[in-house]
């Protein structure tokens, strides 16, 4: 990436890369459906098609059908760092599960392989982090897998949950670093063959870089490979669709979907107006 490349240029490159990624995922999904039919697992194929329709129908920054957080679909036992809607809150301490009182609550549903999420993070991550630390907002991140057939998306969601529970003081550093080191550059510099999702091992490497020990990372990998947080992941998707959300990033302010274009500082103005 050229050193003098502007954020606008990075965003445009991300949008171009997104189209290629969606086409690749569409082909991947079609192949998976065919295999499912061959082996007779018709129900699984239908569920996969339904998920694809729901979560990939809208990738625009301005969402036409606003939703809000409603009664929870999440019934699995949750650690205290994860709320009843599957979110991870950040307050002054910058640790998972903390919050600030009497200030706007800014919630962001994201996927590491969502190109528009990288644009949002590139513009606002540092500012929102500072606002949370200054006690001006409670920041909430909602890990969401809109590409459940791609391990970097599916496992990435569950790794976020694991770190929030087991290393809450490292959670925000990890979240920000994955975007900064992996996904923003990924969409800014697509190859001729399109965006190639990174290997999940890159996420474990990032965990070490933010301070998790080798033992913690080994335990995390063992837990994720063993299916940790799969039930939460499935229920979080049900919650996402029940709330009327149709794509990522989805932004809420005080539990209500922000239904406007968030770019170029507009989100900060909306937060200010919510005080």
Task: Write out key terms for the chains shown.
275 residues; alpha+beta; Glutaredoxin; 5-stranded mixed β-sheet; 8% strand; globular
- Find the structural class using helix and strand composition: alpha+beta
Number of strands: 5
| C-alpha Rg (nearest Å) | 18 Å
Mean pLDDT: 85
What level of helicity do the residues show? 40-55%
The CATH topology comes to Glutaredoxin
N-to-C order of helices and strands: HHEEHEHHHHHEEH
What is the CATH architecture assignment? 3-Layer(aba) Sandwich
In whole angstroms, the N-to-C terminal distance is 39 Å
InterPro entries: Thioredoxin-like_fold (IPR012336), Thioredoxin-like_sf (IPR036249)
Region (Disordered): 1-23
Pfam families: Thioredoxin_4
GO molecular function: isomerase activity
Please explain how this structure is put together:
By secondary structure, this protein is an alpha+beta fold. The chain has a single domain, classed as Glutaredoxin (3-Layer(aba) Sandwich), CATH 3.40.30.10. The chain contains 9 helices and 5 strands. A 5-stranded mixed sheet has the order 1-3-2-4-5. Helix 3 links the parallel strand 2 and strand 3. The longest helix has 32 residues. It is globular, with a radius of gyration of 18 Å.
Q: SSE layout and pairings?
A:
Layout: H1 7-38, H2 42-55, E1 88-90, E2 105-110, H3 115-133, E3 138-143, H4 151-166, H5 171-188, H6 201-209, H7 214-225, H8 230-242, E4 250-253, E5 256-257, H9 266-273
Parallel strand pairs: 2-3
Antiparallel strand pairs: 1-3, 2-4, 4-5
Helix pairs in contact: 1-2, 1-3, 1-5, 3-5, 5-6
């Amino acid at each position: 990436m050229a050193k003098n490349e502007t954020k606008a240029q990075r965003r445009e490159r991300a949008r171009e890369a997104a189209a290629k990624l969606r086409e690749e995922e569409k082909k991947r999904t079609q192949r998976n459906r065919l295999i499912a039919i061959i082996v007779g697992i018709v129900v699984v194929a239908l569920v996969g098609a339904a998920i694809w329709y729901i979560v990939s129908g809208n990738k625009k920054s301005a969402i036409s059908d606003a939703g809000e957080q409603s009664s929870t679909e999440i019934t699995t036992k949750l650690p205290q760092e994860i709320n009843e809607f599957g979110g991870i809150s950040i307050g002054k301490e910058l640790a998972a599960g903390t919050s600030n009182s009497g200030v706007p609550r800014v919630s962001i549903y994201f996927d590491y392989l969502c190109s528009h999420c990288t644009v949002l993070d590139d513009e606002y991550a540092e500012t929102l982090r500072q606002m949370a630390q200054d006690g001006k907002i409670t920041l909430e991140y909602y890990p969401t897998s809109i590409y459940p057939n791609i391990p970097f998306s599916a496992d990435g969601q569950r790794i976020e949950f694991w770190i929030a529970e087991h290393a809450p003081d490292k959670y925000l550093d990890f979240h920000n670093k994955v975007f900064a080191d992996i996904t923003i550059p990924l969409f800014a510099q697509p190859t001729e063959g399109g965006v190639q999702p990174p290997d999940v091992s890159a996420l474990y490497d990032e965990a070490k870089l933010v301070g998790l020990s080798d033992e913690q990372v080994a335990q995390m990998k063992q837990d994720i490979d063993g299916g940790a947080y799969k039930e939460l992941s499935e229920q979080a998707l049900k919650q996402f669709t029940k709330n009327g959300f149709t794509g990522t990033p989805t932004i809420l302010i005080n539990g209500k979907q922000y239904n406007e274009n968030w770019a170029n500082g507009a989100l900060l103005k909306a937060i200010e107006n919510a005080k």
